[in-house]
């Protein structure tokens, strides 16, 4: 098994900005990889005269003090918003740092995965082996009452995670409830591997390796290879690769995983601009280091499978490897990020990616070769986050929301955003220590999707169909 190392990606990357249901997943490409800077159109000074005139007028005549930096940021933001493309945007330095963190193979913290129960955070599963949390003796089920003498009650998971994380070598104090015992533990933070691939031998089929890929980050390709080698040692002679709920990640790592299943020379993905296909990436030793998976394999997908995860599904499907599930999300645009000024960045859509056959999956998704026999709510497309819906609004997306809420036990129906819809959202928000607005937002939608997937997994017919496909 190879030693895990981390390097800076030099190929295409795709960054998950928030969560899949926001449809704000973006691909990034290095400028020297595909972009052609000689095609950049330079504007003349007269093109910006109106902008300069407005800036001068505001800064010299506005009745109150003007924040000039905020004005410039507003102009830059407005220029990208005028494109009508929610994936093209102006980013602050802080927003860019968040994007980098999203694809990093590690973070600084204690290595405990938390969830909420009765509105309090608890350790969902055993801490990562040899992590600070593991060494400190935290156990699955431990309830975190306080972090550094600050109560965790009424706080969201994101807030609690930020309270616990910190620089390597610093300490965090936790007040823990464990059954009838309450105690305090001080833990020194460290660098924690942000693993994205897990794998086990299927309990009912000991020759089948079951692999889950949650995201594509800096070391996903190597993690995947190591898991395959481990499962082979344990007797696996076929594999199920689960890409469900995978919202994307580093494009280069997705290409590497896809290449494992293809022959050298097979097309992984193509790219086009507004005129023609301009580049094709193929399976080769420089991509997968000569590592190949020739055993029978099946892939699982769902409507939350997106971006680089869809790239993998499309690539393996092109070589007649079975894909079981529901049609994927349908995200196929490519963004480039460039620095603007001293601390700003522009994220701009510059290309589209195509399947090996040269087809676009944009807004269509990758259709499975075997459609999963799942409940109707599991087939619904993702809910758009931050939708500006109010009571009385009606559309098909609201109908989907009501059907999802109904599946979770709420009394919602029809295609109208009703008081019942708002009340159901408030219940979910309250249970997750979120502000009970009764409105759609990214975090609330994420919680809905997570709960729905738990229902799907409770009787995982798609996985059972994948097992059948291997026979």
TrEMBL record:
Pfam families: CtpB_N-like (PF22694), PDZ_6 (PF17820), Peptidase_S41 (PF03572), PG_binding_1 (PF01471). GO terms for molecular function: endopeptidase activity; serine-type peptidase activity. Gene3D superfamilies: 2-enoyl-CoA Hydratase, Chain A, domain 1, 2.30.42.10, 3.30.750.44, PGBD-like superfamily/PGBD. GO terms for cellular component: outer membrane-bounded periplasmic space. Residues 108-180 form the PDZ domain. Keywords: Hydrolase, Membrane, Protease, Serine protease, Transmembrane, Transmembrane helix. GO terms for biological process: proteolysis; signal transduction. Residues 180-373 form the Tail specific protease domain. InterPro entries: ClpP/crotonase-like_dom_sf (IPR029045), CtpA/B_N (IPR055210), PDZ (IPR001478), PDZ_6 (IPR041489), PDZ_sf (IPR036034), Peptidase_S41A (IPR004447), Peptidoglycan-bd-like (IPR002477), PGBD-like_sf (IPR036365). The chain crosses the membrane at residues 7-29. This is Peptidase S41. The lineage of its organism: Bacteria, Bacillati, Bacillota, Bacilli, Lactobacillales.
């Amino acid at each position: 098994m190879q030693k895990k190392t981390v390097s800076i990606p030099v190929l295409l990357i795709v960054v998950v900005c928030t969560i899949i249901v926001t449809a704000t997943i973006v691909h990034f490409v290095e400028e020297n990889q595909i972009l052609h800077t000689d095609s950049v159109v330079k504007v003349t000074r007269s093109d910006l005269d109106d902008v300069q005139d407005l800036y001068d007028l505001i800064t010299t005549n506005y009745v109150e003090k003007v924040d000039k930096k905020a004005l410039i940021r507003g102009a830059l933001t407005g220029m990208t918003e005028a494109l009508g493309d929610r994936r093209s945007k102006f980013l602050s330095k802080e927003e860019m740092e968040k994007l980098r963190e999203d694809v990093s193979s590690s973070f600084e913290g204690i290595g405990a995965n938390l969830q909420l129960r009765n509105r309090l955070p608890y350790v969902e599963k055993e801490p990562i082996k040899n992590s600070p949390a593991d060494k400190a003796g935290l156990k699955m089920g431990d309830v975190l009452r306080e972090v550094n003498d600050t109560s965790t009650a009424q706080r969201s998971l994101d807030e609690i995670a930020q309270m616990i994380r910190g620089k390597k070598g610093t300490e965090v104090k936790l007040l823990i409830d464990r059954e009838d015992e309450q105690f305090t533990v001080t833990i020194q933070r460290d660098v924690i591997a942000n693993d994205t691939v897990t794998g086990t031998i299927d309990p009912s089929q000991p020759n089948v390796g079951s692999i889950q890929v949650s995201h594509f980050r800096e070391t996903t390709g190597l993690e995947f290879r190591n898991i395959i080698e481990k499962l082979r040692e344990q007797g696996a002679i076929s594999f199920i690769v689960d890409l469900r709920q995978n919202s994307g990640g580093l494009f280069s790592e997705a290409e590497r995983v896809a290449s494992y299943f293809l022959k050298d020379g097979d097309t992984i993905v193509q790219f086009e601009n507004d005129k023609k296909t301009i580049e094709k990436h193929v399976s080769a030793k420089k991509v997968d280091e000569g590592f190949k998976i020739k055993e029978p394999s099946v892939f699982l997908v769902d409507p939350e499978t997106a971006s680089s995860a869809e790239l993998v599904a499309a690539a393996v499907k092109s070589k007649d490897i079975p894909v079981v599930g529901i049609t994927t999300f349908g995200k196929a645009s490519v963004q480039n990020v460039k620095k603007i000024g001293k601390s700003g960045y522009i994220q701009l859509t510059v290309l589209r990616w195509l399947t090996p056959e040269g087809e676009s999956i944009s807004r269509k998704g990758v259709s499975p070769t075997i459609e999963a026999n799942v409940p109707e709510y599991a087939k619904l497309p993702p809910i758009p986050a931050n939708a500006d819906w109010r009571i009385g609004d009606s559309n098909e997306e609201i109908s989907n929301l009501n059907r999802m809420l109904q599946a979770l036990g709420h009394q919602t129906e029809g295609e109208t955003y009703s008081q019942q819809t708002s009340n159901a959202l408030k219940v979910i928000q309250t249970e997750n220590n979120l502000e009970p607005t009764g409105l759609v937002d990214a975090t609330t939608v994420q919680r809905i999707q997570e709960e729905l997937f738990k229902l799907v997994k409770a009787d995982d017919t798609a996985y059972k169909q994948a097992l059948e496909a291997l026979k």
